[in-house]
């Protein structure tokens, strides 16, 4: 697969902050704590197309750049939670696309490469007042689902599609914090779905 499929962020992805889960709102802290206290499971998946066992499964994280300062929170908390679950940063490749509309195609190309046990798509679809954002939101979410059903590689959605978003401090802070939660959820789903799918495939192959 050509690296030019998307702009890769450096050779070795890293988390820029250690305190991505800190938040003064106790209710959000409760959500984060509950997610982080889930059983931590090491991933041993069959990420290669040949079905060979691979304890060093790789994962792809592709994000849109629209409202980057908000979407970045999902990426940072995802990397932090994956590291906490025993997945080294060197096993996660980061990619960027201009907007959420480009996420399904890039997820498809990355998933089809046979390099990744799962692909995470992270983006923010908001109503900009120019077009019906519902059309874009439905296209993106449906596209991601169609991709994983077609290529049979988990595509985890960390795409938020709020009906109302106003570019002021209150809304920016709310979604800034909410993407932190989405990043943790995406990491948990990434690990558990990849492992569960391998178990299902083992059963199917043994039948």
Automatic annotation (TrEMBL):
<dbReference type="GO" id="GO:0005829">
    <property type="term" value="C:cytosol"/>
</dbReference>
<feature type="binding site">
    <location>
        <begin position="124"/>
        <end position="126"/>
    </location>
    <ligand>
        <name>5-amino-6-(D-ribitylamino)uracil</name>
    </ligand>
</feature>
<comment type="function">
    <text>Catalyzes the formation of 6,7-dimethyl-8-ribityllumazine by condensation of 5-amino-6-(D-ribitylamino)uracil with 3,4-dihydroxy-2-butanone 4-phosphate. This is the penultimate step in the biosynthesis of riboflavin.</text>
</comment>
<dbReference type="GO" id="GO:0000906">
    <property type="term" value="F:6,7-dimethyl-8-ribityllumazine synthase activity"/>
</dbReference>
<protein>
    <recommendedName>
        <fullName>6,7-dimethyl-8-ribityllumazine synthase</fullName>
        <ecNumber>2.5.1.78</ecNumber>
    </recommendedName>
</protein>
<dbReference type="Pfam" id="PF00885">
    <property type="entry name" value="DMRL_synthase"/>
</dbReference>
<feature type="binding site">
    <location>
        <position position="171"/>
    </location>
    <ligand>
        <name>(2S)-2-hydroxy-3-oxobutyl phosphate</name>
    </ligand>
</feature>
<feature type="active site" description="Proton donor">
    <location>
        <position position="132"/>
    </location>
</feature>
<dbReference type="InterPro" id="IPR034964">
    <property type="entry name" value="LS"/>
</dbReference>
<dbReference type="GO" id="GO:0009231">
    <property type="term" value="P:riboflavin biosynthetic process"/>
</dbReference>
<dbReference type="GO" id="GO:0009349">
    <property type="term" value="C:riboflavin synthase complex"/>
</dbReference>
<feature type="binding site">
    <location>
        <begin position="100"/>
        <end position="102"/>
    </location>
    <ligand>
        <name>5-amino-6-(D-ribitylamino)uracil</name>
    </ligand>
</feature>
<dbReference type="InterPro" id="IPR036467">
    <property type="entry name" value="LS/RS_sf"/>
</dbReference>
<keyword id="KW-0808">Transferase</keyword>
<feature type="binding site">
    <location>
        <position position="66"/>
    </location>
    <ligand>
        <name>5-amino-6-(D-ribitylamino)uracil</name>
    </ligand>
</feature>
<feature type="binding site">
    <location>
        <position position="157"/>
    </location>
    <ligand>
        <name>5-amino-6-(D-ribitylamino)uracil</name>
    </ligand>
</feature>
<keyword id="KW-0686">Riboflavin biosynthesis</keyword>
<dbReference type="InterPro" id="IPR002180">
    <property type="entry name" value="LS/RS"/>
</dbReference>
<comment type="similarity">
    <text>Belongs to the DMRL synthase family.</text>
</comment>
<comment type="pathway">
    <text>Cofactor biosynthesis; riboflavin biosynthesis; riboflavin from 2-hydroxy-3-oxobutyl phosphate and 5-amino-6-(D-ribitylamino)uracil: step 1/2.</text>
</comment>
